[in-house]
Structures are given as C-alpha cells and as structure tokens.
Amino acid sequence: xxxxxxxxxxxxxxxxxxxxxxxxxxxxxxxxxxxxxxxxxxxxxxxxxxxxxxxxxxxxxxxxxxxxxxxxxxxxxxxxxxxxxxxxxxxxxxxxxxxxxxxxxxxxxxxxxxxxxxxxxxxxxxxxxxxxxxxxxxxxxxxxxxxxxxxxxxxxxxxxxxxxxxxxxxxxxxxxxxxxxxxxxxxxxxxxxxxxxxxxxxxxxxxxxxxxxxxxxxxxxxxxxxxxxxxxxxxxxxxxxxxxxxxxxxxxxxxxxxxxxxxxxxxxxxxxx
Length: 273
Hints:
Order of helices and strands: HEHEHEEEEHHHEEHEEHE
Number of helices: 8
Strand content: 15-25%
Number of strands: 11
Oligomer: single chain
Low-confidence stretches: none
Mean pLDDT: 96
C-alpha cells in the first residue's frame, strides 16, 4: 500500500474532525466528573500554539485506570453515535492496542501497514490509560520488560505482514497466540499492576520516554482548564515540568525536517465536516 502525503488542507480538515472528538470527550468527562488530561503533542500544542501543532495529524488524551473504567461505564449511553464510535482492546474484535480510540463516524484514517486490521478505522482521538507501575526503578524496569513483551505480541498482527527476515518469523510465531487468550492474560496483568497504589504510572503497552519507564501520577491527576483552539479542555496543571520531561526545550520549534506526520495509506473525511 502506498503512503498518502497529507496536504495542508488535509491537516486543517483533520484538525477540525479531531477537535470534534476532543469536545465530545470533554463533554462526557465533565458531565460525569471523570478526570482526564490532553496529552503529548495535544498538550504541547495547547501551550505553544494555543491549539493544534500545525503539522500534527492526531490528538491525545490520558487518564488513570479508575477514571477510564468510569468512562467505559457511560460511553455507550452518552456518545453521540451518529457522529462517533469507541474502540478498545476488550470491546472491539481484532483490536490490538493497549489504549482506546474515539473515532469519527463516516470517515477513514488508516495508518500505513494497518490495512490488515479487521475493524473500522476512522479519524481518531487516542485515549491513553495509566496503570500503576513500581516506584522502585529496578522493579519498574522488570515491569517495563513484561509490558514490552505484551506490546510485541499485540503488534504481531501487523508485524507478520510488514517485517522481514527473522523478525517476520518471530511475529508469525507470536501471532499464533489466540486473541481472546492473549486479551484475558493481559487483563489479568493490568489487574495485577493496579493492586498497589504507586506514585508512578504509565500506559503499559506504550513506550515510555527518557528510560525512566514511568511518569508522575500527579501529572495526570492535577489538571486545569486550558484554551485549545476555540474551546476549553483539561490539561496537566504542572505542564511546564511535564513537557520539559517529554520534550526538553518544548517552546523551541523543531527544524522543518523534523516536523513529521505519521505515514497514512487511506484518508476520507465525513460528508458533514
């Protein structure tokens, strides 16, 4: 499958759809007092650009496991199903990511090499979930290794198609693990990780930066209202510390060659956008 080069007009329309997703997420979370924060490039965009980073092609929010369980308990009855649908590991057959996606109905946004995934792939908002990880660094390293193994097994559905040589054979082997068995084992792993309260958390199957393998819980549980485009969303209260941890000198614009978007193979916008 060939990569589609996103034009400036494509990015503007993507941002419009993603803003709808952010607003819908915020509406539900505020109604039920569910704590979340915009995250990653979305948080950076709010601070540095007062909205989307001009060349960014996705949007992210993050919450802790307790908040996420509360969100799951209300999303089906609250979500405007004429415009949105929600996917995650335990509610979507064939879905193999450790975080959820709120998607725009009547749209298509397929990342390159994910054409093989057997579910709808509309324009999306990533919903990351923080689980407890050990405060002790050595134990956290062990936790990170276990999480890495799960991530690679989940990824095997893609890896068996796109990798080459021994990597391809390894992913083909990992992909023999039945999906439901894998998801059941992972659910037990998540439950185990959350037995003990910790000051350090992470999205288990998403790589953590800076080789610390964890993040401060307070970054996701102490939030403030932040202006984003023409709306107000929730963001990390101590955003300076958090963004410095993630990006270093985050107010400095990256060079043009580093302003990259994710490779995309299919893109279609909803007719009403």
